[in-house]
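Sequence and structure are kept together here, with a separate record for every protein. An example record follows, reproduced without changes.
>
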Amino acid sequence: MLTTALVQGAGDTPVGTALSLSVPAQYKTLVEDAGKTCPEVTPNLLAALLTQESGFGPKRTSPVGAQGIAQFMPSTWEVHGIDGNGDGKRDVWDPEDAIPSSAQYLCDLARDVKDVPGDKQQNMLAAYNAGSNAVRRYEGIPPYKETQNYVRSIEALANQPTGDGKTATMAQAATAIKAAEEMVGTPYSWGGGNASGPSTGICCSPKGRSGTEITGFDCSGLVLYAYAKAGISLPRTAAQQYAASEPVKPGDVRPGDLVFYGDSPESIHHVGIAIGGGWMIDAPRPGTQVRVDPMDVMTDLYAVARPTSHRNKEI
């Protein structure tokens, strides 16, 4: 069972009532307004969910057919999509419809599972991922790795402290590199790794590889772990970690900076930790281990960025 609530109990001041997460400028007002739809939804929670679902990519389609910035399945959209901008159409590809629809759907799910034991926000998020019936059947977050990781990732991102905006120090970078170096040789596990170290992963990679029986790291899990050792809390996925970092110019790259691969911020698919001399430590892909690779190991190097120094509450 997850131990950190997304928000405090009824009557307390909820975490994330003001939007502090990084949100593309064109969506900020939409997220702030939709994040007040019901008490169980806050702007930060909604921003974290949209980051997790699509990286704020309005034209994203998942391998299973989920659509748009909030990744609605067509059947779910048919029932729960709303005309958020009042133009007479319910368009899953239009963020002005999809973002308010996502918030309203979360509120509907919160009502569906309101009598389930446990944290109401966590149960609501689990229902968004696995369905209300599963949450009611298991009386809380279902024992599905995917759903448990989904709730944990959104919770960590929604509760990420604003911090002072400063980037990681050289000492923190050195600590992160040392932590990553100690994991060289650890197996790759799709969805594996957390702030505590290697863990079993989830199913499945785009090529169908599962991490459910492998204890290890995927690329972003390794980065999350290494920087947790340095006292810096990063979100779970490579795209989210890019959003939580500040890009650096090619001539300013230093050891400890994060190396990101993809075609755009929302399509980032890999991350490593620079160690100098054009090399990095990373967890490349299923079937490999944590290792040292050249930074040009992939042809779609997108950016190098430095993590912002949000301090962990617990290390």
Observations:
- The chain has a mean pLDDT of 87.
